[in-house]
Amino acid sequence: MKFSGLVIFALFATIAVEAAAQPKLHPIEEACVTYEMSGQMQNGSITRCHREYGYEQYEIQNITIGIAGFTQTQNSHNITIGDTIYAIDLENNSGTKTTNPMYQNMVSAMENNDAEEMSDAFISAMGYSQTGETKTIANHECAVYNSSQAGTLCLTAEGLMLEQTILGNATTATSVSIGDSGDDANYTLYQQVTISEGPDLSNLFNQ
Length: 207
What we know:
It is built from four helices and twelve strands. The chain is globular. Strand 4 and strand 5 form a beta hairpin. By secondary structure, it is an alpha+beta fold. The longest helix is centred in the first third of the chain and has 20 residues.
């Protein structure tokens, strides 16, 4: 009985150490945002949720893309757990697994900066600057950022994107749920489909 107790204690201690080792990649522990997409090139909806401060995330897309009279409906389910990205094709019950080549850089940067500071640095690196304007979207206030090349963003103080416009196409939050990480099944869907190795994304950053 004593031996079993020690084994159980060691098991829980190991789990606690592993959980503590996970980096904090977002200021908010859990959140879900649903967006409506509108414009000449796209229409539909996106739901993005995360938990464990962004260590686990998923995005569900149901959009129609139209270019030069050609339209295509896209239903996708993407899951990110740490440095692993699962892109799932719901129609074929299959998916690919790739490694995010920027993940370790993100984790290293987080060691000396909090998530809010990293969010500001990322926005600046993307060429966005704050305009001083604020908006209220889905009952939450956000600050407007502008980029001459990438359009506009509207972000909450905690780093949640509530609106993005690019080339006349808008992605606007319709609901925001902080403290809600969404359905657990949406994080584990990759376990229910056939997964193959995806492309090596590191090549994109070594050219």
